[in-house]
Design brief:
The protein has helices at 4-7, 13-27, 32-42, 50-60, 105-119, 124-134, 142-157; strands at residues 30-31, 66-70, 73-77, 121-122, 161-163, 169-171. It is mainly alpha-helical. It folds into two domains: 4-77, no CATH class; 94-171, Arc Repressor Mutant, subunit A (Orthogonal Bundle), CATH 1.10.10. It is elongated.
Length: 172
């Protein structure tokens, strides 16, 4: 790529864009936050600020054809991907684990569906815990629990899963 000083040079705008395009091509859907971190890391930038974000925004404009939002998290998608038909979830090992904040709800819902296919019906707490395990987390606390709980509410509202009178959640 170049050095962090090179990042600010106007003649490197296309190289920054190419870096951004490669990341989208390989990692989409990706959270906007993680996307920026990966581009910055590729250029040796360790801290974000208004200047670096301005250069980045100008260079990476339009790299992703569309974005979706989950609460205050934004996810970038690549050409040909559709949140409505996205049917996988990606696991990670300990060396490359994504924060739950960096995983779109569409991916989490796919993991929830798999858990429910295996377990038939679970309490919300058990479903949160088992879903977290799918992404390599041994415990579902803090942001992990919060993101999965938000996603369960989203899936229930959309009718993708259902809650029984007893409170257990099952596949639709």
């Amino acid at each position: 790529m170049g050095t962090s000083d090179d990042f600010y040079k106007p003649e490197n705008k296309q190289k920054i864009r190419e870096t951004a395009e490669k990341i989208i091509a390989v990692e989409a859907p990706i959270s906007e936050k993680l996307f920026m971190r990966k581009v910055f890391t590729a250029w040796g930038i360790t801290r974000s600020g208004s200047r670096v974000e301005s250069v980045f925004a100008d260079a990476a404009q339009g790299v992703s054809p569309f974005a979706t939002a989950d609460e205050n998290r934004v996810f970038l998608w690549k050409e040909g991907q559709s949140p409505e038909s996205y049917s996988i979830y990606r696991t990670s090992d300990d060396t490359n684990k994504r924060s739950m904040e960096d995983i779109p709800s569409e991916e989490i819902i796919n993991a929830v569906k798999e858990v429910l296919c295996q377990q038939i019906s679970l309490s919300e707490a058990d479903l949160v815990r088992e879903t977290a395990k799918k992404f390599g987390y041994t415990r579902a606390v803090g942001i992990t629990e919060s993101v999965i709980s938000y996603t369960l509410k989203k899936a229930l509202t959309a009718g993708l899963i259902k809650k029984s009178e007893g409170g257990n959640i099952s596949a639709k």
